[in-house]
Amino acid sequence: MVKETPKKRRVGDGTPGPGRPKGVPNKTTTQLKEALLEAAAKAGGEAGLVGYLTQQAQENPQSFLPLLGKVLPLQVAGDQDNPLRVVTRIELVAARGDGAD
Asked: Alpha-carbon distance 22 to 16, whole Å?
């Protein structure tokens, strides 16, 4: 009985490689994020990134607001002195438009 030794895998032979280890960010993605932040900081002039984002919030709120929603915390809590109330019921009441109540 002859025991076959497995062929060594080589990059480009059609077999998948080990890939990027779990948790290690993609280099291209990291470089792109860094470049975007640097460009935005330069575009903001002396005010930097905050200045640029302030300008975009004023000039392009339709694009800025969804971005803001992505970075806001998903869980909102009130403070101890003013806790948030949970809305359990919404009631619609018809009002007469003639001013008579």
From this structure: 16
